[in-house]
Design brief:
single chain, binds flavin-adenine dinucleotide, alpha/beta, seven-stranded mixed sheet, five-stranded parallel sheet, FAD/NAD(P)-binding domain
Length: 367
Amino acid sequence: MERACAIVGGGLAGFVAYTTLRHGGLAPGEIAVFGTDPDPVAAWRPRAEAIRQRRMRSESDGHCYPRSFPGLAPREALRQGTAAPLLETVCNRYRPTVDEFLRHVEELRERCGWDESFQRHRAGRVRAGPRGFEVDDRGSFGHVLVATGHPGLAIPPELAGDPRAVHAYEPHGYADRVAVVGAGMAAATEWLNALAAGAEVVSVRRREPVRRPLNVPRPLFSKAGLAGFHDAARAERAELLARFGEPSYPPGREWDEPLESARREGRFRISATLNGEAQIICATGFRRGFEHDAVLRGLVAEHGLDTEGRWIVLKADGTVPALSDGTRALALSGVHSQWAYPAADTLVGMKYVARRFLRKVRTCRTR
Ligand SMILES: Cc1cc2nc3c(=O)[nH]c(=O)nc-3n(C[C@H](O)[C@H](O)[C@H](O)COP(=O)(O)OP(=O)(O)OC[C@H]3O[C@@H](n4cnc5c(N)ncnc54)[C@H](O)[C@@H]3O)c2cc1C
C-alpha cells in the first residue's frame, strides 16, 4: 500500500520535517521515517558533547517546532520568569543553552508521534517508481524527503591513522601540548577548551577565519538575500556556496579575551604547520558532497540528476526538479539542500525546506 510520505534520515532535519508534516495534518500512519536511531539527536549530541558545546550557535528560532513563533527565548523567559532571554533576542544576543535545546527536542518527540512512524532501517536505495518513490523494499511513497545528514567526518589524509590525531567531534581529553587543525567554530571552541584544561595550544590553519555570528552571512536568512542567491548564475552560485563553507566563528570578547591572555602567556600561537605536538585535534568538519552519500549517489546515477560541483541542483523549494511535479515530490533537507538554501545545515534551513515540502504534499493531495 502506498503511504503519503517517507522521510529518509531520522536526525534533526528529518525530525523538523516530521513535526511540520504532523502540524500540517498528516497522521503518524501516513508518514514513515527511516533512520538509524530513534533519538533525533543521536547523531548531533555526541558531536556537541565532544567539543563541550554549551550554547547553540543558532538563536531563538533554532528549534524544531513547526511554527517560528514563539521560539526558544519566549519559552525560556516564561519558564524562568525573567525577561532576559527576550531582551537578548532583540539585539541578536540570545543563544539557547544546549540543555534547553535538548529538553525541547525530547518534549516535542514525546508528543508528536515520531516513535510511531519511526522504522530502524538504513536505506540503501531510493528510486522513482511508477507511483511515487520506492525506498528499498519498504514500500511505495507518494513523496520523499531525504535528510541523511553529513556523510562522515573529514580527516586530513596525512593524519589518517596517526595515533596522535583525534577528530574534534569524537570523544577526547587534552594533552599538555595540543595542535588544533582548522579555524571554524569547532576549532575556536577547542582552543578555549584546551586552554581551560591547562594545555598549550597551537592553532594550525591555512587561512584566517571569518568572524560572523551565524554560519552564513545574516542577509542570506532573509527573503531578499535569498532571492539574490537564487538569481545568481550556476557557477556563481557554486562559488558563493564554497565561500560560505569557509571557516568562521562568532565575534565577541568571550572568544578574544581568553585567546589574547593565553597568547601573552605564551600558551596560544598560530602556525601554518604541525610541529611535534603530543595531540592533534582535527577540527576539520565533515566530508563534503553528495558523492559521499550512498542514497544520493544512487539517485543521481539512476535518474541522471543535474549536479554542479559537489551539489545536487535543486529548485528554490528544495525539491529535485527531475523527480518532482504536480503528482509527487522528492526533496532534500539538511546540508545537501544548500543549493536551495545556503544555511541548509541549520534548524532554520531545515524548517525552510520542511514547510515547502508540506506545501507540495498538500497541493498534490488536492489534485
Ligand atoms: C557540533 C555541532 C553543533 C551544531 N550546532 C548548531 C546550532 O547551534 N544550531 C543549528 O541550527 N545548527 C547547528 N548545527 C548544524 C545542524 O543542526 C547539525 O549538523 C544537525 O545534526 C544536522 O541534522 P541532519 O538531520 O541533517 O543530520 P544528522 O543529525 O547527522 O542526522 C542524519 C541522520 O540520518 C541517518 N542516516 C544517514 N544515512 C541514512 C540512510 N541511508 N538511511 C537512514 N538513515 C540514515 C544518520 O545515521 C543520522 O541519524 C550543529 C552541528 C554540529 C556538528
